[in-house]
Amino acid sequence: MAELQMIKLHTNNYSTTPMIPCRRRRTSTVSLLRQPRFPQDSSSQYRVGFPRSSVKYDGAVSRRGRSVGGLTVRAFDSAPSSTTETEVVVVEQPVEENGTVARFRKVAAAEEYTTADVAAFELRKDGGFWDNVLLQLRLMIAPPWQRVQNGSVLSIHLAGEISDVKGKFFSPAFTLPQICENFAKAANDPRIAGIYLRISSLGCGWGKVDEIRRHIVDFRKTGKFVVTYLYSFQEKEYYLGCASDELYAPQLAPFGLYGFALSASFYRGILEKMGMEPQWVRFGKYKKAGDQMARKTIAEPHLEVLNKLLDDRYDYWMDVVSSSTGKRRDEVEKFVNEGVYDMDRLKEAGLLTDVLYEDEVMSRLKAKVGLQKDQVLPMVDYRKYSGVMNWTLGLNGGKDEIAVIRACGCIAVTSSFANFPGDGVTAARVIEQIRIVRESKKYKGLVLRIDSAGGDCLGSDQVWRELRLLATEKPVVASLSDIAASGGYYIAMAANAIVTEKLTLAVSIGVLQGKMSFAELQKRIGYSNHVVSKGKYAEYHTAGHRALRPEEKQLLEDITKHWYKIFREKAAISRSMSIEEMEKVAQGRIYHGSHAVEVGLVDAVGGMARAIAIAKHKANIPQDRPVRVVELTKPNSGLTEWITALGTVMAGLGGTAGAVSESPKFGHHGVEARVDMSMLNGLDGGGRVSEFNPIFTIMKSFLKLGLGSI
Predict the structure, then answer these.
(1) Which 3 state secondary structure label does DSSP give 399?
(2) What is d(CA 593, CA 571) in angstroms, rounded to the nearest whole number?
(3) How many helices (H) and strands (E) does the chain have?
(4) Which keywords belong to this entry (predicted)?
(5) How many CB atoms sit inside 10 A of residue 27's CB?
(6) What φ, ψ does residue 192 adopt, rounded to 5°?
(7) What is each CA distance from 528 to 483, 624, 664, 694, in whole angstroms?
(8) Which of 6, 250, 336, 378 has the most CB atoms within 10 Å of its CB?
(9) Tens of pLDDT, residues 443-481
(10) Is 81 a known active-site residue?
(11) Per-residue pLDDT tens for 233-266?
């Protein structure tokens, strides 16, 4: 008899996504309200818009529960007591389970639920007099590099790329774990009065921006302030900055709030002039990674996806900005469409607190912490504050430990000297870390943080297998960052639950594979090649000098179709869908995280905190009990990274010619599951379209992908 799943639904005031709750358990939440320790300036002249806690991050959860091999996979349920249960309507539907179709599933039709807000970080509980004495003692005996003057302002400068892998001492890069950890420590540190956030042009995606924004919002709930200064900004930077108490910018700061644009580039015309003929086979009508070389214009399915992504991005930005600034959406939209270029207009519209030089902002910061203008404002730099240990602030976590593994970059089976350090996921290394979690009794669960557009199919499948084995013993929760598509989503499917940011680029269940024919180019330059072979398909791997024969093209199609069916079937089983249901939402389509939740490919909207909360829930750890989060991904020190990168570049200079002459890769060892982000220019920027050299992009694709990808 097929398993029947009872789905409860709840109502609230937010959206219309049903929820699949787990076994209910009494939980308690940690209050984020705390009396400010330092004087706060509440005068209206410095506060234009930006109401406190004006934006709520709803906990949208997928409509699908799933049972895979006896393992029930459901999203976290911590619905508040005020939630009203509604009548359950039962409908019979087939469900894919272990490759077979079960007869029935109970589904529900009712209104939306909401989960309780999950704080971006935990606050240290006030243990009374002796606990405070112990904290002061720890601060007194802290080593010099951890000492901070009372009433200090933490200075954080966000600019350029932001990595999802925690760096070490020599690393010059900004990393999301360190940024979020500094917010959490500053919220609990009695020596920190507030945060001064400086923002320049950001090169990260919207998933990381949402994570940082959530920390800003929750930091303000502690009673401490966040003041932001924008050196240059577009939609993404402003979206982050408007979460602050006060927002400033200099008169001549370059900015542009003009809306969003996406573009897709096509090189077929260039390739024809060069004497190259792309031959691609795809399964999934939305799988468009090969279109940049195979087409001269955009295809209708590709245009459909771009329009949907653009609409989602535009609507979400408008809603959040209008809510944060206290404006109506039509007012913000009108301002954007006016093409404003004068900074004073932002102040007049209430979208900026004031237009000031930075020294004038420093004077206002002094007033906020109760200092006179002639006194020195105590500030602590982001990198120095990163050296303050959690133990010093009494943030020891608990006895229970949740492991975190970070899978960021292109997925490969093994590490290669040709890969830049920190830019990739080595399956062998990740599998080793997964086995540590599986074999150790101290880890109660795993959060897999994914920021990957895919890579090698074999590497992705090996990681998927190890995660599936772990998920039968301990809870595994996938947390999606900027992107988790193709191979990135493939490994996420093995988790008990998948959590995504609203604007994460996710899924892409599709396969593309192909080759380039250089016959015309070789003819033009006077190059000839003679191949002696024995076997019908013997020249399949060495056919770069000519176009594929009909039987070779058929073989290529069969291989591609075979890989697509494997990907699709595993996705269907993981998401408890029939093959027909999965086919409707697969086909290589890219979704924003919120849309992926709606179609059942992802479970919940949220960041790392929600993923950890779900892992605690599934491990039967009460939500009010703190846990120790252990990072298992250990990057090389920054010094090692720089030395290795230099060696890689030098080695690459001598290896280019060999890479160019390498034969196209096909079959098992050449198949890759990745999304080519050059087909979605503008998705990684604020509202701007990325600029790049198309010739360089083509050559990079040839050298890096070996002329064959899916």
Answers:
(1) coil
(2) 16
(3) 22, 30
(4) Hydrolase, Protease, Serine protease
(5) 16
(6) -100, 125
(7) 43, 72, 17, 28
(8) 336
(9) 999 999 999 988 888 899 999 999 999 999 999 999 999
(10) no
(11) 999 999 999 999 999 999 999 999 999 998 888 8
